[in-house]
Structures are given as structure tokens and as C-alpha cells.
Design brief:
Layout lengths: L4 E4 L56 E4 L4 E6 L3 E6 L3 E6 L5 E6 L5 E6 L5 E6 L3 E6 L5 E6 L7 E7 L4 E6 L4 E5 L12 H5 L18 H4 L3 H6 L4 E4 L5 E2 L7 E8 L9 E7 L3 E6 L9 E7 L5 E7 L2 E6 L3 E6 L4 E7 L5 E6 L3 E6 L4 E5 L10 E4 L2
């Protein structure tokens, strides 16, 4: 939902963070349907009543509070008392959820921030960008702790997930690859004091290139924005070639989530789930990363749609698709158990609470379905969210 206004609902408690400046760049997150698997398209419910009348418009609720962000919002993460937003200009912005006060604006990436994710204990914030970089931040100080760079040209990095048990970060990219890196001494890490110099060896394919006649481009010197990003500090990590899975999907990897509790023999065993532009959802085993890398366990297919968002609750996986629907899978039986017709563009976000499912769309709508499944619905049941 790329809008500059954020609608907030209910405050909790607040805390103060440091401040910084934003960075300028040009990149926007584009998510397009990938029609690689021809098949019978899903038909939405009828658009009118039995008497031919127009369908009723859903009730519109007005926001309790509105926050204006300094650019198009590409990603959100919600801590207990702080709202983090990644914006198109490359900054991460933080607000207090108690007072709605702006707490910090930091230059995080050279291009748009495309993904944000919190660690399980909310002590770490992970950001991904169109600059092919994954950064790791302290949520208490907003200081950068790590900056992860691929050995390969991976393009935009859309999604990230962190395993506390494995102390490993996973992320999916535009070139359909998945990479992972342990945040420990086995990484090729430079000291924090020399990190800004080391980062200079990571040349960006466009922004670090010379202009016509071999001169520096205006964007490179404009306001020192790139220099400020590079001086954020933290450990600089070049991800090992061994921690790279090419062609994990047929197209962009837009979404990623880590789940546990799927196996009776070990309720703490984690499974990585990824969704791609080719319409597939894949489940990966991560218990033998050193010996085998990622091991594919299952695959779900969605023809004619890109998988833009993933979330889970209990034994159910929720997927937001580019055809305006959300699919619900039973992870125990690996079956599609329900389709929700959302409409209003791509379903770019899905969130689930105890009694409702919220779907955010590319046209700026948030659609709510009261009641989340607690038992298996009828197979392939189609429900319209009004």
C-alpha cells in the first residue's frame, strides 16, 4: 500500500529513539502478476444482487489518527510501542504509538526500503532495499549492527526473516534467489570502526558508476546522502557463495515467513515459507544449512497470480495474491481450504488476529473479515470480504 498517509488505530505505550536525516533516491516497488502457469482462473462472486442492482459498498471506517510519512510507504513493522515505516526515499521512520510523535528518521538504504521485519524478541529490526542490501538495526537505539551484501547481482531484496534458534537471516530477491547468513564470527566481518571504508568496496551497479566522460554523477555527490548511509557503522558482511540458492522460484521472491510447530517430533523445528511471482508457495527445511542448504519440503501452486504476502496463525497459512484474493492453507494437511475474495487490486498485505483477517490492497483499501478459521472450512470455499 504505497501511500504517504498511515492510519493508526489504538495506541499502547511509547519510548524515545535517536534522530537522523532521510536520504534521497529513486526506486519504487513494482509487483506485477506473473502468468506463467495457464489454468482456470478463479471467478469472484457476482457483482450485483438477484434483482440486478449494484452490490452494496462496504462500510468505510475513518482513522482514529493519521500520520504523514515523508514519502511513499513501502513496508511497516510494529513493535510494542513504536511504529517503523520504510519509505521510497530509502529512509526508515519511527513514531511513538502512545503520542504519535516522530521519534527518528534515518537514512537506511541508497534506494527504496522494500521490507521490514522484527526478530522474535523485537530487539532487532531487519530492512531490505532496492539497493540489494539487508541491514540489521537495534530497535532500542536505531544503530546499524550489520549490513549484508551479496556476492552476486541479486537486484531488489523484497523480504527477510530471522531465526533466533539458528541465529540466521534469510532473504529473497528479485533474481529468484534465497540467501542466508549467520550473524556471528563465522561471517567475513570488518570491525565497526572501519566499516564505512570497507563498504566502499561494494560498488553499486548504477549509483557508483561514472557518468559520461568518466566523471562522477550529480546523484553521487548530492547532499552527501550516500556517504551518510555508508557512515551508519556496524559490521559489513559479504554473504558467502555457499549460502546462496539460485532459482528458488521462477520469478521474484516477494514474501517470506518462518513458522514452527508443524512437526510432532519437534515442535520447535522451524520451516521457511516463501512466495514468488510465479504463483508458487514453497516450504523449506533449514535444519541442515551447512551440509545441504535449504531443502524443499512442499510446494503449493497458484496459477495466474503472484504471491505478494504471507502470514500464519496456528496451523493456517494466509497468502495475499495479485488477483485480488487471499488463500488459506492448512499446513498440517497441505491443502487449500478457503479462498477469500478481497478485490480493489492486489492483496499486498494480510494480517490475522484472534477473530478477524485484515487484507490490505494496492488501491488503498483495508478489508476486514470477522472470524479467522479455527477449524477446517469446506474445501475451496469462496467468501467475499465486504
Amino acid at each position: 500500500m504505497a501511500t504517504a498517509d498511515l492510519d493508526q488505530q489504538q495506541p499502547t505505550s511509547g519510548r524515545r529513539l535517536g534522530t537522523g536525516e532521510g536520504a534521497e533516491s529513486t526506486a519504487a516497488r513494482e509487483r506485477k502478476s506473473s502468468l506463467q502457469h495457464p489454468g482456470q482462473a478463479f471467478s469472484p462472486p457476482p457483482t450485483g444482487g438477484d434483482d440486478g442492482s449494484a452490490p452494496p459498498r462496504p462500510a468505510v471506517k475513518h482513522p482514529v489518527h493519521r500520520i504523514t510519512a515523508p514519502g511513499s510507504v513501502q513496508a511497516l513493522a510494529v513493535d510494542d510501542d513504536v511504529l517503523f515505516a520504510g519509505v521510497q526515499g530509502g529512509s526508515i521512520v519511527a513514531w511513538s504509538l502512545e503520542t504519535y510523535e516522530l521519534l527518528a528518521t534515518i537514512p537506511a538504504h541508497q534506494e527504496s526500503v522494500l521490507g521490514l521485519s522484527l526478530s522474535e524478541d523485537h530487539s532487532l529490526l531487519f530492512s531490505t532495499g532496492a539497493d540489494s542490501v539487508v541491514n540489521v538495526w537495534s530497535t532500542q537505539t536505531l544503530q546499524r549492527l550489520y549490513s549484508l551484501h551479496s556476492t552476486y547481482e541479486v537486484g531488489d531484496v523484497f523480504c527477510v526473516a530471522h531465526s533466533t534458534k539458528k541465529q540466521t537471516v534469510f532473504y529473497g530477491a528479485q533474481n529468484a534467489s534465497i540467501q542466508w547468513q549467520r550473524l556471528s564470527t563465522d561471517a567475513l566481518v570488518s570491525s565497526p570502526a572501519s566499516s564505512s571504508t570497507s563498504l566502499g568496496t561494494f560498488k553499486h551497479r548504477f549509483f557508483d558508476s561514472l557518468g559520461p566522460g568518466g566523471t562522477v554523477t550529480l546523484l553521487q555527490s548530492e547532499d552527501g546522502a550516500i556517504a551518510r548511509i555508508r557512515n551508519q557503522g556496524g559490521h559489513i558482511v559479504r554473504v558467502s557463495k555457499d549460502n546462496y540458492l539460485p532459482y528458488a522460484h521462477r520469478s521474484y521472491i516477494f514474501s517470506m515467513v518462518l513458522v514452527k510447530g508443524l512437526f510432532q517430533h519437534d515442535r520447535e523445528e522451524e520451516v521457511l515459507i516463501t512466495g514468488g511471482g510465479g504463483g508458487t508457495i514453497k516450504l523449506w527445511g533449514i535444519d541442515a544449512l551447512t551440509e545441504q542448504g535449504l531443502v524443499q519440503l512442499e510446494k503449493y501452486k497458484n496459477t495466474e497470480s503472484s504471491v505478494l504476502s504471507l502470514t500464519y496463525r496456528g496451523s493456517f497459512l494466509y497468502a495475499g495474491l495479485s488477483d485480488g484474493t487471499a488463500h488459506i492453507y492448512n499446513l498440517a494437511s497441505h491443502q487449500l481450504v478457503q479462498k477469500l475474495y478481497v478485490g480493489h487490486g492486489d492483496v499486498s498485505q494480510v494480517q490475522v488476529s484472534n477473530d478477524s483477517i485484515l487484507c490490505g490492497t494496492s488501491e488503498g483499501w483495508v478489508k476486514v473479515r470477522l472470524s479467522a478459521p479455527t477449524e477446517r472450512p469446506a474445501p475451496d470455499e469462496t467468501t467475499a470480504i465486504q
